[in-house]
Amino acid sequence: MYVIVLLISFSFKFPATTVQPANATALSARDSLSTVSSTEPKTDKPFPFPGPKLESQWRDVEWTEEQKTSLMTSVSSYKPSCEEVTEARVLLLGPVSSGKSSFISSVQSVFNGRVTNRAMVGSSSTSFTKKLQSFKIRGEKQKDLTGLVLCDIMGLGDGEMTGLTLYDILSVIKGHVPEGYKFSPDQPVRSESVGYVKRPSLKDKIHCVAFVVDASKILTYPKGLSTTFQQLREHISDLGVHQVALLTHIDKICPETAKDVTQVYTSRIIQDMMGKAGTLLGMSTSYIVPVKNYSSELGLNVNTDVLLLSAVDHILQYADLYFQDNTPQYESKIDKNFTA
């Protein structure tokens, strides 16, 4: 009996993403960041188990009702340290199904006192969000707005159907893209686009970018996605906008955390995945926070609320750094201190 073994080599190539300078005036649809697809077939890989859980939390968090109340008060009372604006605009940016829209709905659910889906959430491999949508987060009394606006945009890696280019994203951050603008693969954002804001003020701009990545997909994301993220981060940094990251779906990679979210910072699995997320994004883990969004739940959980509110508080800290860096009043105070 003869046994013939055939070795077949498969090679997956990710097209290089052409990046134009941040001050470019136009970019064709072919220069789309979506050339890195996050929807390609992947083989499921078991999550490594780094070992038993840690003896103590590697980040200090108080899992109490009092802490939840304190964080809610902090977020509700937040006001930008700039007289020109009343709200911090935060752009959520990440691959398809990473949990951007779910995070928005989860944060509003905490203040609503019940689970609600304010931002439409899709369940397929393609992005449900097709246009720029801004969600003003309301406080406990609902009639009172907080100083936070979460902006949702279509996911990265939708094949050829997104039309989302680097120039599109930078135009959103610079404040040129109007609310409700629908992105098209044939028509990148241009100065001739309907509603294009030619001279955006500080209140029109994005004040912080929060990258969103799915913890359960970190090991299977395409290699090219890391390059895409780092290209984005470089150009966003050139605009003086601070960046943080949310690691979602942590309950899918750690059974203990799925049962009890207070185990998040004693889980070696999550700690290890935080490091991998940092490598993917090209940022220190000090900028990354793990979150568990509400999905199938019908009621709130105080510990999940604490984790979500801690993430919001983290985001607002970096949004405020933007105002400190770009506020004339703040700059004038610095000048006076130096000349005194």
From TrEMBL:
Official protein name in the record: G domain-containing protein
Segments of skewed composition (Polar residues): 30-40
Keyword Signal: yes
Alphabetized InterPro entries for the sequence: P-loop_NTPase
GO biological process annotation, one example: immune response
Domain of life assignment: Eukaryota
Keywords: Signal
Region of interest: Disordered: 30-51
Signal sequence interval, chain numbering: 1-18
Keyword Coiled coil among record annotations: no
